[in-house]
């Protein structure tokens, strides 16, 4: 027997009931965002979650930050329709489709928009929703639906093709006016393009061509893709910045984050959907180049290098690169995916979000904002589906908890303007519901049909499930042209969608949690904790990447599990700890919080008020009970329940509303409090 089979692994409490509760919590998160948009934002492009008002294009046409994404139609609803379908909410899906058709007759808008963003958000959203509305196999078919969403998608696709007019080399203009074609913005033509923008049209244009039987869309997308590939260096590295008019290189940097990310993503995904070996060749050559020049054995992130020389040029990683583990999952390199994901998860754990850019040389934030991006939760979802390791459920729970604690506001979820101070930005982009909320829901909804669908579909870079399977699309084609059989890949055996290299764990035990590299990260990188989170993030529970315990007594030792030993059978054996017996407190009495105690184990809230006080209430165990917390005079207060619970996992809840009833499952230790007033604690009945 190999010694490493006896290594203890981390246990998390994720019973079917707790997973259902987390799924419901993720649905509540979505509901708050969606209902806020429909009440305060629709039919505008977006909703301002703090101001509680709709927002659309800026009259100042040079405001590209808004106008690139906002064309004057309800893009948030279009981008969100298939999320309603994924959640099985047929009535709301039908209503959403009806509202889109009521407010969008066509795309004859005098609006200059970015081709890439309009393609992935609006065109992709229309195509996915059309598939759900027309297919009898997906459970969302709308009675008497006549293909109106496909008609809109075709109209939009034709207008986006205006960006290709007069272009011999194939790379489209990055922006196009949907009524007038190519025109100047602010008195000049903006020709800055990038690898991702010109190379990430394949899935949406490909599906539009399939449904309409008109190859002009995919022909244009493929020509642009290969035109960008021709700009690679002898090292097969792609530059990030391109002048679309002259093909002059405007940024010689090469990396896997912003401006390049989805080029590699669509190379792989379009190969998986089309079976065209040319795209696999591009992906595999690009990946070899990235592994050679953009990585180093001693680091887990990807460098930005000069695309000609291969030398490092920028000492930072950006938040968009958090998606890259998904490609490793799709190609079966799980060890690499796990490492990259851990690097970004550690960043999240440090800042309660991922800063747009973070410098690994001096552990400083380079760009401070986090606009609710989905890339980390997307990778978490992929890794959980591949490994079934409960560590990724814990990551998802942590992310969802932080979003609710840090970013939830009156009318939705506000992005973080500065992760170092906690300042919020009054914006909720459409991808929050299209991707972030959707991947959280699917992570916890393990029985969702999409999680076990072996038919030919792929997630787009905007989180739209795009089906290329003729069995699904039997009623989805345009009636003008005959159908033809699908050419893509097919899982004829309907096998479980899990990487065969990893055995499916049968209990709440984590391989990833016991991997020695979990806490090697602290030696590899230094992480600067922002002042407003520092007291909270110093707690052992929130440091996922540390020496983790199985049952509170046995510590995983460094070096126990070698990388080479991540083989089948890894989950087969573990040392099980003795779980404590849980005895619920059911007296129903009010308990006063003590004051003036030793506060070494009590943690401050997000900000420190000058006259705030600290208190605590000790208890032996709480298991399946309700706590009613009553704050006095409606002052702000913060609650922390901390301790090793019956499952061997550390459990914490935070609440910052004056009065709340809180469900507590399996917690022992201290109930910690800090605020201006003293809450009373009532311990109530068992949770039904």
Automatic annotation (TrEMBL):
Annotated EC: 3.2.1.-
Molecular function GO labels: calcium ion binding; carbohydrate binding; mannosyl-oligosaccharide 1,2-alpha-mannosidase activity
GO biological process terms on file: carbohydrate metabolic process; endoplasmic reticulum mannose trimming; positive regulation of endoplasmic reticulum unfolded protein response; ubiquitin-dependent glycoprotein ERAD pathway
Record's subcellular location: Endoplasmic reticulum
Main location group: endoplasmic reticulum
Highest taxon, organism lineage: Eukaryota
Protein name: alpha-1,2-Mannosidase
Record organism: Yarrowia lipolytica (strain CLIB 122 / E 150)
């Amino acid at each position: 027997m190999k010694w490493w089979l006896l290594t203890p692994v981390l246990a998390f409490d994720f019973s079917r009931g707790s997973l259902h509760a987390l799924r419901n919590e993720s649905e509540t998160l979505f509901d708050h965002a969606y209902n806020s948009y429909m009440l305060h934002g629709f039919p505008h492009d977006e909703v301002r979650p703090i101001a509680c008002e709709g927002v659309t294009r800026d009259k100042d046409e040079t405001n590209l930050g808004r106008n690139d994404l906002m064309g004057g139609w309800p893009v948030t609803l279009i981008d969100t329709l298939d999320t309603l379908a994924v959640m099985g909410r047929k009535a709301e899906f039908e209503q959403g489709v009806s509202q889109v058709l009521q407010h969008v007759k066509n795309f004859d808008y005098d609006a200059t928009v970015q081709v890439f963003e309009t393609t992935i958000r609006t065109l992709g959203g229309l195509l996915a929703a059309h598939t759900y509305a027309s297919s009898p196999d997906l459970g969302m078919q709308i009675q008497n639906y006549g293909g109106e969403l496909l008609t809109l998608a075709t109209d939009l696709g034709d207008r986006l093709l205006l960006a290709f007019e007069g272009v011999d080399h194939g790379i489209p203009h990055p922006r196009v006016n949907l009524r007038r074609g190519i025109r100047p913005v602010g008195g000049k033509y903006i020709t800055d393009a990038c690898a991702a923008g010109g190379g990430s049209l394949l899935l949406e244009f490909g599906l539009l061509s399939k449904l309409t039987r008109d190859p002009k869309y995919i022909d244009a997308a493929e020509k642009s893709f290969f035109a960008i590939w021709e700009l690679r260096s002898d090292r097969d590295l792609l530059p990030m910045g391109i002048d679309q008019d002259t093909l002059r290189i405007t940024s010689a940097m090469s990396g896997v984050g912003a401006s390049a990310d989805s080029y590699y993503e669509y190379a792989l995904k379009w190969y998986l959907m089309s079976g065209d070996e040319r795209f696999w060749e591009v992906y595999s050559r690009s990946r070899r180049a990235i592994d050679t020049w953009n990585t180093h054995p001693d680091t887990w992130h990807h460098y930005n290098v000069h695309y000609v020389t291969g030398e490092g040029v920028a000492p930072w990683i950006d938040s968009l690169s958090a998606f890259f583990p998904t490609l490793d999952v799709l190609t079966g390199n799980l060890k690499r995916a796990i490492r990259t994901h851990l690097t970004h998860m550690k960043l999240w754990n440090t800042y309660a979000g991922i800063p747009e850019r973070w410098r690994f040389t001096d552990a400083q934030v380079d760009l401070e904002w986090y606009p609710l991006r989905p890339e980390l939760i997307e990778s978490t979802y992929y890794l959980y589906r591949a490994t079934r390791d409960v560590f990724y459920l814990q990551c998802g729970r942590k992310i969802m908890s932080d979003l609710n604690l840090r970013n939830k506001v009156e009318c939705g979820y506000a992005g973080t303007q500065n992760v170092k101070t906690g300042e919020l930005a009054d914006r909720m982009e459409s991808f929050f519901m299209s991707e972030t909320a959707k991947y959280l829901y699917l992570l916890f909804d393990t029985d969702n049909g999409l999680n076990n669908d072996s038919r030919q579909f792929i997630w787009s870079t905007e989180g739209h499930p795009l089906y290329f399977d003729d069995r699904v699309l039997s009623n989805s084609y345009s009636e003008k042209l005959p159908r033809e059989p699908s050419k893509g890949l097919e899982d004829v055996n309907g096998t479980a969608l899990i990487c065969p290299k990893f055995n499916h764990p049968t209990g709440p035990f984590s391989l990833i949690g016991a991997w020695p590299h979990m806490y090697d990260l602290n030696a590899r990188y230094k992480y600067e904790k922002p002042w407003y989170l520092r007291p909270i993030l110093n707690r052992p529970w929130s440091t996922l990447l540390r020496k983790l315990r199985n049952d509170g007594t046995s510590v995983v030792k460094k070096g126990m599990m070698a990388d080479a030993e991540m083989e089948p059978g890894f989950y087969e054996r573990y040392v099980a700890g003795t779980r404590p017996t849980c005895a619920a407190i059911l007296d129903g009495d009010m308990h006063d919080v003590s004051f003036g105690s030793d506060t070494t184990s009590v943690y401050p809230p997000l900000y420190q008020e000058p006259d705030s006080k600290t208190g605590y209430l000790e208890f032996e165990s709480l298991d399946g009970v309700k706590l009613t917390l009553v704050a006095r005079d409606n002052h702000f207060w913060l609650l922390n329940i901390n301790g090793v619970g019956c499952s061997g996992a550390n459990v914490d809840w935070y609440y910052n509303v004056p009065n709340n009833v809180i469900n507590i499952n399996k917690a022992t230790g201290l109930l910690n409090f800090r605020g201006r007033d003293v809450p009373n604690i009532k311990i109530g009945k068992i949770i039904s």
